[in-house]
Amino acid sequence: MNSVQNLIAQDRKLLWHPYSAIGADLPIFPVKSAQGVRIKLLDGRELIDGMSSWWSAIHGYNHPSINQSLSEQLQSMAHVMFGGLTHQPAVDLATKLIEITPASVQTVFFADSGSVAVEVAIKMAIQYWYAKQQPEKNKLLTIRYGYHGDTFGAMSVTDPVNGMHSLFSDILSQQFFADAPKCDFSQSCTDQDIESLLSQLEKNHHSIAAIILEPIVQGAGGMRFYSPEYLRRVKELCDHFNVLLILDEIATGFGRTGKMFACEHEDVTPDMLVLGKGLTGGYLPLSATITTQEVYDAFLGDYEEFKTFFHGHSYAGNPVSCAASLGNLEAFENYNTLHELQDKVQFLEDELKEFGGLKHVGNVRNKGAMVGIELVQDKETKEPYAPELKMGWKVADHAMKDGVLLRPLGNVVVLMPPVGIPMEDLKKLVHVTYSSIKKATEDS
Ligand SMILES: *Cc1c(COP(=O)(O)O)cnc(C)c1O
């Protein structure tokens, strides 16, 4: 056995992988290193990364700004607990995050994964109303097709059917679900789009602590974009019914939709903003729940009246993660990332029109550097491919042969390249995706 086969054999024996069937004999690819937008495999091949390592590697790999910030931090300390201690990287990062996020949010709670930052937001929202002497407001309201993570609180607000967690539905906290809006990003939001959410609020607002939403686009639920106007109307309803608004920007933050944060498309200001994924530019685990002063102030008190927020993790506020995140933000400035992105977004827009002409593409959804291409068995009736055909994966297999790494969501082929991808690489990514869809859906 050569070293590549050996590593694979060892992996098969020892390791669980996220969202991977055991025994299905899916291929697994040992990686040697990663540089820019390229992942170098141990067998010598190079792949252009169309996934940004689960949507996180905003500037690509081995980035000078992030590397430098990290290695400087390592000289002084890798970690100290955040209980009763603080440090410059955490304060600097909080300062920066407050600067770049909507003006409504002012205070930062650090955790280490997106799911946990969602848990934190849920717990804060419930405890907020407890402090306001409305303890009956302890449920969440959300819309179908949402995804907020894999831990129990996060699963409870993730789509119960579409969200891969239906096995657990009996033991999850029961939350309120409304229908997702049908208005596309470019359409206006009609009364009909908001009706389901409105009626849930009318019926249940006395027991609702907060609404949680992914702004502009439901990512893992299948790249479902919706009108920013919907978001604004949700915000108005939150104000009217006295319900907090939690915006989950774990997928959309850090330039993904063409603006730094997706809520900027309609200037909607949340009570809590949740960040993860791209927060460290794909380097290290870090997430943040950022709240208004109003939410923060509800917790003021000296360990009395249940005001203390009893939540924290061993690696909370990790200084190396904070340094990586500071390097990530520096890269945005040093490389003018958002400005440079605009031409690439235009290129994508133009090229993606071609995809609509493919025989088995039902729908192309995109904004910024975030794309979902929906494959259908029948273009007329929009009949989807049966899941067991694994058509999304067939496209990914073809792309892999041509040097591009993709990871679909069911029948939706996803493009989430690093926001800082050079134009030449973006061209290759798009062209290989096009030919891979054609090969997978037409040539068999
Ligand atoms: C990925 C994701 C999460 C979960 O983050 P993890 O770091 O994987 O726990 C939550 N919400 C959204 C919108 C996401 O895309």
CATH topology descriptor of the largest domain: Aspartate Aminotransferase, domain 2
Oligomer state equals single chain
Which structural class fits the helix and strand makeup? alpha/beta
Spatially, the strands of the biggest sheet line up as 4-12-11-10-7-5-6
Q: What is the name of the CATH architecture of the largest domain?
A: 3-Layer(aba) Sandwich
Count of DSSP helices? 13
Mean pLDDT: 95
CATH homologous superfamily descriptor of the largest domain: Type I PLP-dependent aspartate aminotransferase-like (Major domain)
Helicity, as a percent range:
25-40%
State the distance separating the first and last CA atoms: 33 Å
Largest sheet: 7 strands, mixed
Shape: globular
Radius of gyration: 22 Å
Count of distinct structural domains: 2
Q: In the CATH hierarchy, what is the class of the largest domain?
A: Alpha Beta
Can you describe this structure?
By secondary structure, the chain is α/β, with parallel strands linked by helices. It folds into two domains: 3-59 and 336-443, Alpha-Beta Complex (Aspartate Aminotransferase, domain 1); 66-333, Type I PLP-dependent aspartate aminotransferase-like (Major domain) (Aspartate Aminotransferase, domain 2, 3-Layer(aba) Sandwich). Helices cover 37% and strands 17% of the residues. The chain has helices spanning 3-14, 52-55, 64-76, 88-100, 114-131, 152-156, 191-204, 228-241, 293-297, 319-334, 337-355, 391-401, 423-442, and strands spanning 31-35, 38-41, 46-49, 105-111, 139-143, 176-178, 208-213, 217-218, 224-225, 244-248, 272-275, 287-292, 361-367, 370-378, 383-384, 404-405, 412-415. The strands form four sheets. Strands 4-12-11-10-7-5-6 form a seven-stranded mixed β-sheet, sandwiched between helices. A four-stranded mixed β-sheet has the order 1-2-3-16. β8 and β9 form a beta hairpin. The mean pLDDT is 95. Pyridoxal-5'-phosphate (PLP) binds next to α5.
